[in-house]
Amino acid sequence: MTQAIASAVVHDLIGVGFGPSNLALAIALREHAQTHGELDVLFLDKQADYRWHGNTLVAQSELQISFLKDLVTLRNPTSPYSFVNYLKTHGRLVDFINLGTFYPCRMEFNDYLRWVSGHFQAQSRYGEEVLAIEPVLHKQQVQALRVISRDSHGEQSVRTTRSVVVSAGGTPRIPEPFKALKDDGRVFHHSRYLERMAAQPSISGQSLRVAIIGSGQSAAEAFIDLNDCFPSVQVDWILRGSALKPADDSPFVNEVFSPEFTDLIYQQNSAERERLINEYQSTNYSVVDLDLIERIYGIFYRQKVSGIPRHAFRSLTTVERAISHKGSIELALRSTATGEPSEHHYDVVILATGYERQMHRQLLAPLAEYLGDYQVDRDYRLATDERCKAGIYMQGFCQASHGLSDTLLSILPIRADEIAASLYAHGKQQVPVRSIHDGLLATAS
Ligand SMILES: Cc1cc2nc3c(=O)[nH]c(=O)nc-3n(C[C@H](O)[C@H](O)[C@H](O)COP(=O)(O)OP(=O)(O)OC[C@H]3O[C@@H](n4cnc5c(N)ncnc54)[C@H](O)[C@@H]3O)c2cc1C
């Protein structure tokens, strides 16, 4: 086993992940530092360099939220880290205005996020996956946290911090019939779309039978990309529902993504929170932008006109089994309308089946006895029992208590500001570095 590298530094905060949530927090902390003093902050990300859902950045994909909901504008429209300042710096402000849109393409938003991350090189490390967060105990109290990470060479690092913020995003959801095939390169989650498609023979014009499983925005974007960029691909689109449903982004409904709505949700009891979150599922889950639905309908309609049935739309269909053969992946399907079974063979199966939000439980497992049932305070700090003096914050794992905006870009600057304020407030009651070092020595002995 490789020897772990341990640092004697005690950080004020270590962030797990350096995606939009922690980028927004890094900015908020930098801006707080001007009036409140600087914190020692470090962000770790497992990617080799920053990319925003990099394997999904197909040419046609657009941001599904106004660019004004960037990393800063809701909190501080004069911040140098705004999307508008990014455009100005890159000489595209006038051209972007001429586009007349609130929705830049996702490739451009990715470039904006990379540009911001470049301003925080001293506070970030890429290529380091956090494996676990452990307690540093002294006199039966959790005085600090030990963050264990591993780089791409397998080398482990151990760092100590007074607080962590877990912002590790979602984990691809693999439906049961496909779990045994997760190492088969022909079956992959949409989160790996570009890298896996680049390895397929369709790149050189050979015919390819592709199944897309799912009915949300990712499935729709994959379908359009396969239709437009791979003329030799024939798609079977398999979905449980009867139709593609439009994402509701109408203005009154959009108010559920306002910062004030977070307060409203948080103030409810758990049954009412759940009811409200379910009521607005159609803003984000298993839905597709209306303009994309219309394009897709047009593609299927033109097939009818031409009489050449290139793609198939298999609604009201479930996948019962997936079997790997040498020359194909066999899917056993069943119509939920008639009960009729059928078997089909594919070269590639794309799972556009969404994401789970469980990573926090895995990373924080060594602290489980202090955490109870992962209840989160309004400031995104995990409620711990009184023995835990260290701060544990989460972003993207609080939908049940803070509402649907928690996993999106909607309120990033406001949330970052709330967490920054909480970190400074708790910093006033901080455990001295000396006690933490005593704890580290006690653990080592
Ligand atoms: C394809 C796609 C498109 C989307 N489009 C939109 C949109 O248009 N508008 C919108 O509001 N939302 C959108 N979302 C939702 C998305 O969750 C947010 O936009 C945003 O990415 C959330 O930021 P985050 O930092 O919380 O999580 P992520 O962006 O998921 O970032 C998490 C980071 O943590 C890193 N990481 C994970 N585990 C570890 C670990 N153990 N150790 C170290 N690093 C780790 C990852 O490498 C990643 O960089 C989209 C999501 C997807 C999948």
Helical element count? 15
Strand content: 15-25%
| Low-confidence sequence ranges | none
Ligand roster: flavin-adenine dinucleotide
Label this structure with key terms:
445 residues; alpha/beta; FAD/NAD(P)-binding domain; 17 strands; 32% helix; binds flavin-adenine dinucleotide
Give a quick precis of the structure.
The chain has helices at about 20-35, 85-90, 95-100, 105-115, 195, 215-230, 250-255, 260-265, 270-280, 290-305, 360-365, 370, 400, 410-425, 435-445, and strands spanning about 5-15, 40-45, 125, 130-140, 140-150, 155-165, 170, 185-190, 210-215, 235-240, 310-315, 315-325, 330-335, 340-345, 350, 355, 390-395. With about 450 residues, the protein is α/β, with parallel strands linked by helices.
Task: Describe the model.
With 445 residues, this protein is of the alpha/beta class. The protein is 32% helix and 23% strand. The protein has 2 domains: 5-170 and 357-444, 3-Layer(bba) Sandwich (FAD/NAD(P)-binding domain), CATH 3.50.50; 173-246 and 285-351, FAD/NAD(P)-binding domain. The protein contains 15 helices and 17 strands. Strands 1, 2, 3, 4, 5, 6 and 17 form a 7-stranded mixed beta sheet that branches. Strands 8-15-9-10-11 form a 5-stranded parallel beta sheet, with helices on one face. A 3-stranded antiparallel beta sheet has the order 12-13-14, with no helix packed on it. Strand 4 (128-138) and strand 5 form a beta hairpin. The protein binds flavin-adenine dinucleotide. Residues 16-22, 44-47, 53, 56, 63-65, 129-130, 167-170, 218, 359, 395-396, 407-410 line the site of flavin-adenine dinucleotide.
